[in-house]
Amino acid sequence: MESKNPVFSRTRQQSAGWGVPTPTPGQLQNMYDNDSPSYAPPVRPAFRTMTLDDVVVRGFMTLGTLVVGAAAAWYFKVPTGVAVASAIVALVLGLVASFKQSVNPALILGYALFEGVFLGAISRVFEMYIPGIVIQAVLGTALAFGAVLTVYALRIVRVTPKLVKFVVAAGIAALALVLVNLVVGIFNDGGLGLRTDSPLGWGFSLLMILLGCFFLLLDFDSIEQGVREGAPEKFAWQCAFGLTLSLVWIYLEVLRFISYFTNSD
């Protein structure tokens, strides 16, 4: 079955398939015509294929690295400059890992570490002004993860090629809106109002949370397709990277959304 996820479709084209090559009709006929006991079975892949356990282990390693970076940044009270620099480094590493579909553990764990430093610093700032907001955001993210996993497992929402194209297009549009809002904010206080404590800001945050959940849905589909189609073990790192990206997205949006309704005033 052909994968609907663009990540695995692209990889399959580059590697000319992960599984055993499909016999041609002529080869199949020869198998039936030749009843010789010396017939050799098809050669199996030279690599170990990815399993769900591989993804779970790599996922824990990636998220664990992120949590360690966040805890260190929180404990040592890293200055704003360090947090911003870490965010830039994480952005660069994340873009490289995304566009190259990298399965390099050092690159992915490096992204997780720098992203964790940024998350720890920004979470501490939110916690200073709104005590208890971080644990609420963590619980909200965990609930979102559990809900999406349940929806996917029960096939309430099926991942189709149309859904993949829609989610990717919506993600690009959302990021473009955030960038435009940031640029407009230089000349006009509040920008387009997408990141303000207002009905428009609330609605945009909800849409961003929902979009993050849809990306999480695509991540689950990628994992299932990779395991089913016999992806190499190393691609578990790319799956772990995708899950981490989606969870970071959801966490930041949940953190922002909660802050609108729990002001310290």
Concise synopsis of the structure shown:
With 265 residues, this protein is mainly alpha-helical.
Characterise this structure.
With 265 residues, the protein is an all-alpha fold. It has one domain. The chain is 73% helix and 0% strand. It is built from 9 helices and no strands. Helix 7 runs antiparallel to helix 8. The longest helix has 31 residues. The N terminus is likely disordered.
Poorly predicted residue ranges: 1-20, 35-40
Mean pLDDT: 85
Q: In oligomeric terms, what are we looking at?
A: single chain
What is the SS-derived class?
mainly alpha
Figure out the total of helices.
Answer: 9
Helix content: over 70%
How many individual domains? Answer: 1
Can you summarize the main beta sheet? none
End-to-end C-alpha gap? 56 Å
Q: What is the tally of beta strands?
A: 0
Strand content: under 5%
Q: How are helices and strands ordered from N to C?
A: HHHHHHHHH
Q: In one word, what is the shape?
A: globular
Primary descriptors:
single chain; 265 residues; mainly alpha
SSE inventory with pairings:
Blueprint (H helix, E strand, L loop, with lengths): L5 H10 L9 H9 L18 H24 L4 H20 L5 H25 L3 H21 L7 H27 L11 H31 L6 H26 L4
Helix pairs in contact: 3-5, 3-9, 4-5, 5-9, 6-8, 6-9, 7-8, 8-9
